[in-house]
Write a structure and sequence with these properties.
Shape: globular
Structural class: alpha+beta
Radius of gyration: 16 Å
Largest sheet: 3 strands, antiparallel
Number of strands: 5
Oligomer: single chain
């Protein structure tokens, strides 16, 4: 799995591990138009390559409390899986990413340890857990599987 290291100049979670591509959904763009835009901007992935390898993968919803302004924020993350050619190497295109690197399943599992010294941006954990469940890396026989699945979609979607 390709991962990114956020720029140290980012206002939120500077230097944290992040997805290869992510971004807010602007008004006036479809989800797929935004995927194409973000892939090119953040990782230099050409639209043709994105269209060839992208698959919608559902959504995650949750609510979180912001200590900064005392507000409860409702969040919906639309997820897409993107298969890239083995020889493709992403490159930072907009200054938001310091570097890209690949993680194995073992690296991903290690990142889930609360004592991991190289933290991931918090909402990325949810997307990664969803991917692990969808791909079978977390078995449906696992304890509390349905509870985790339900929690990943616990926020109000509007």
């Amino acid at each position: 799995m390709w991962m990114a290291r956020r720029s140290k100049t980012k206002s939120k979670f500077p230097g944290f591990v992040d997805h290869i591509v992510a971004g807010g959904q602007p008004a006036g763009l479809s989800l797929m138009e935004n995927v194409l835009k973000e892939c090119l901007e953040e990782a230099g992935i050409p639209s043709e390559l994105t269209l060839k390898g992208v698959k919608p993968a559902g959504a995650i919803s949750y609510a979180n409390y912001s200590k900064n302004d005392g507000a409860m924020n409702r969040v919906v993350l639309f997820n897409f899986d993107l298969e890239l050619p083995q020889d493709f190497i992403p490159y930072a295109n907009d200054g938001e990413v310091e570097s890209f690197f690949k993680w194995t399943l073992d690296d991903i599992a290690a990142s889930m340890d609360p004592n991991c010294e190289d933290p991931i941006k918090p909402n990325c954990y949810l997307v990664i857990i969803d991917w692990l469940m969808r791909t079978g890396a977390i078995s449906s026989d696992s304890p509390k599987y349905l509870d985790v699945l339900r929690t990943l979609r616990s926020g109000t979607c509007r």
